[in-house]
Amino acid sequence: MLLRASHCLLCLDQEQSAGSSVSMPEPDRIIRLKTVLSRTGLSRSTIYRKINEGTFPAQIRISVNGAGWHESDINRWIADPVSWRPKREFDGVR
């Protein structure tokens, strides 16, 4: 009987682990200017002025004639625009 009870517990553990999927982080999408404008409510000139001031995420080059923003950077800015600062490579290390 003891063997059977432990076997049932093992089955229960296996069923629970099989049913619960490990959530993978979603990849960081690249969004274009039109999307940034609609999400932030800022004008194009204000966005570029803030980029020059260092108070808005900078664009990344996605092709010869195209650029976009990391969606996570824009989401961080939307969450707290006043104290937003660019992430530095070594921020987590210190």
Architecture overview:
The chain is mainly α. It has a domain at 30-79. 48% of the residues lie in helices and 9% in strands. The protein contains four helices and three strands; from the N terminus they run αβααββα. It has helices at 2-19, 33-40, 44-53, 71-79; strands at residues 30-31, 60-61, 67-70. A three-stranded antiparallel β-sheet has the order 1-3-2. Strand 2 (60-61) and strand 3 form a beta hairpin. The protein is globular. Mean pLDDT is 80; it is low at 5-13.
The global form is globular
Structural class: mainly alpha
Beta-strand percent range: 5-15%
Helix proportion:
40-55%
Distance between the termini: 55 Å
- Number of E-state strands: 3
Order of strands in the sheet with most strands: 1-3-2
Topology:
Blueprint: H1 2-19, E1 30-31, H2 33-40, H3 44-53, E2 60-61, E3 67-70, H4 71-79
Antiparallel strand pairs: 1-3, 2-3
Summarize the structure.
It contains 4 helices and 3 strands.
Features:
94 residues; mainly alpha; three-stranded antiparallel β-sheet; 3 strands; 9% strand; globular
